[in-house]
Amino acid sequence: MSITGRTDRQIQEAVEAELEWTPEVDAAGIGVAVDDGVVSLSGEVDDYVARSAAKRAALRLRDVTAVVNDLKVHPKTSLAVSEVDVAKEVDHALRSATNVPDTVKAEIDGHAVTLTGQVEWDFERRAAKRAVRYLRGVHFVENRITLTPRASSEDTAENIRRAILRNAQLDAKAIKVVAAGDTVTLSGTVRSWADRRQADLAAWSSPHVSEVYNHIVVKS
Could you give the residue ranges of the DSSP H alpha helices within the chain? Predict the structure, then answer.
């Protein structure tokens, strides 16, 4: 039972209702299981758009602490998309995106895309994934892009704390920031998955950070 009094069964029913409410998702093909606030999604969806939308739908809900997305992409269309087609689509998308550096490369294995290379900022790494994840024929994207080495700074943790404090969405008192070299560890509690993501983005925005370990726990 969550700290707000909702049982796993009630959380499950809420997730199922939210999936029904999500236009990109055919909820009939998705199974939902909940264990102590952790939601597991299983079944098949038509494309990567639906797979991602289902996960976001579950994370929007109160008392959901994490989502295990085991949904498989299985297109209903009979139109085949070859590995060569996927490679061409991915290459064009990466080269066309103004916020994705030329250092980003893609490896294609069937309908799975693995992104590699090195970039200056985390937003460029995330932009590369966004550029390809909804393309025709792409069923899965693994992001292995790394950041260029950063010079450490003594005030890294304090600057991140100030960024978190400026964010109206976050309770800075409930979040702890520890920096060791160019690595930052976040801990504490937040009210939602969106809040956890905001803290994560604050840490990644530092010019002295190349790795973030986010151990923040979601509690309503």
Answer: 8-21, 48-59, 83-96, 122-133, 156-166, 193-204
